[in-house]
Amino acid sequence: DPIGFELWNEPNHYTEDTPVKAQKYCDYIKPTRVYLNYNGHDTIDLAPFSLAYNDELNFVDYCFKYGLYPYFNSIAHHPYVWEDGFTSTRLQEYRMDQIEDLILKYGGWKDREITEIGYPTTTASNTPTEESASIDIVKTFVVSEAKDNEVTIFYDMVNDGEDESYTEHNFGQVTYDGAPKKSYMTTTAFNIKTEGGIYVGEIETGIDM
């Protein structure tokens, strides 16, 4: 049996005005939740929304205003936030604080989950290098833990295609032909070294990370 339902992928990206698409999403979720409960499933995630643009949080705010807050267990989000062409973990941290503030505004008892985040490495100049991706992917792990996200899922494990210039083909931590990238090495090392550990806080090292 599934442990939860994520409904559905990034609905905030539709081109309609934010209040309109939020209302349509609410009209879909409410009867779906009733159906799932009737069939013995009591866990449902609000659709993962992208944090790439400022308007995404407005979409969630409208959903809450339209009465969706009691109908789900957790908020799933995809913290793809870009700064000078690269994902910024500092901006991710700021956006995660915004999500927490929004939850507190409406009641404060929802979990948060990162159900997709990745670092595509392509031959294009506006995507991360293997070196920067290998660093930022670990930093995202740490930021997510510090911000009390229940889950962090990286997208994805293996490149989806062979075109090295196409972003969607190059999110993997392993190349299409099976060679590990640097990010595979750093995430493996991080997970091994921190297994069983608990995030307790921050210390000032004097090193610019």
Proportion of strand residues: 5-15%
Outline, from the CA principal axes? globular
Mean pLDDT: 84
According to DSSP, the number of beta strands is 7
How is the main sheet built?
Answer: 5 strands, parallel
Q: Kindly report the spatial arrangement of strands forming the biggest sheet.
A: 1-2-3-6-7
Helix content: 25-40%
Number of helices: 5
Elements, N to C (H/E): EHEHEEEHEHEH
Report Rg.
Answer: 18 Å
Stretches where pLDDT is under 50 for at least 5 consecutive residues are none
Distance between the first and last residues' Cα: 41 Å
> What structural category characterises the helix and strand content?
alpha/beta
Features:
alpha/beta; two-stranded antiparallel ribbon; 7 strands; 5 helices; globular
SSE map:
Blueprint: E1 5-7, H1 18-38, E2 44-50, H2 55-65, E3 74-78, E4 82-83, E5 86-87, H3 89-106, E6 111-117, H4 130-146, E7 152-154, H5 182-194
Parallel strand pairs: 1-2, 2-3, 3-6, 6-7
Antiparallel strand pairs: 4-5
Helix pairs in contact: 1-2, 3-4, 4-5
Could you explain the architecture of this structure?
The protein is an alpha/beta fold and 209 residues long. Helix content is 38%, strand content 14%. It has five helices and seven strands, in the order E-H-E-H-E-E-E-H-E-H-E-H. Helix 1 (18-38) packs across helix 2 (55-65), helix 3 runs parallel beside helix 4 (130-146) and helix 4 packs parallel to helix 5 (182-194). The longest helix is centred in the N-terminal third of the chain and has 21 residues, at 18-38. The mean pLDDT is 84.
